[in-house]
Amino acid sequence: MDFNVWFEAYLGGRWYTIDARHNMPRIGGILIARDRDAMGIPMLHTFGPRYLRKFKMITEEVTGC
Prior knowledge:
Layout: E1 7-11, E2 14-18
Antiparallel strand pairs: 1-2
């Protein structure tokens, strides 16, 4: 399994999104799934030999909203 996760914490009356992998502010994130911990939502979960030949994701920042 491969983990790619951020977490949300409610502190001082507001929610914070924290990405512990990079330890720096991000301009956004793409929510694919939610669970109580990373074991419930691995980025890749297979049984037996598998080969990921290509994985491509293109995103663009939306401005002026």
